[in-house]
Amino acid sequence: MAKFVAFLRGINVGGNCKIPMADLRELCREVTNDPDVRSYIASGNLVFETDSAAADVAAQISAAIKQKFGFEVPVLVLPEMNMRAISSSCPFPDEAGNKVHAFLCLNDPAVNQDKIDCLKTATEQIAIIDRTVWFFAPEGVGRSKLMANMESCIGPATARNLNTISKMVEMLDG
Known about the structure:
- The protein is an alpha+beta fold.
- Helices cover 38% and strands 24% of the residues.
- The protein has helices at residues 21-32, 54-69, 80-88, 113-119, 145-154, 162-173; strands at 2-8, 38-40, 45-50, 75-79, 100-105, 125-129, 132-136, 157-161.
- Strands 2-3-1-4 form a four-stranded antiparallel β-sheet, sandwiched between helices. The protein has a four-stranded antiparallel β-sheet with strand order 6-7-5-8.
- β6 and β7 (132-136) form a beta hairpin.
- It is globular, with a radius of gyration of 16 Å.
């Protein structure tokens, strides 16, 4: 069986699309047949093993959520090798992990550079590596216009900070 990481987009944010992690782990166990599914924080981060293909597992988890909870959730499933490559590709590894975000694009990024340039402050940095858009906001993301509008600049994505990306790789190891 191969190891995978799953990221669910937009759950448990602002009281919307609520999914308790115990329910999510159980749902994932049913889809993957892995009794040891693990989750990290309540934003929909999973580590599991399965013999199925990543795209199949993503579709099955999404369909199971729709059936059980009544709403649709985009699910991105990454094989272990891809997750490790994303983590090691971070162009800002020495910065504070809560100020570096990875936007994991659900499709190839549709970059609107003009819009990025209009929204980005002088201190903010962005780097696009494959299907990951890395964003560093040294003043924090709370006031960042680019952070708030990133999907309109790159297309659909789910974002995680560097601390979470690092924790998911650590969970793959243990």
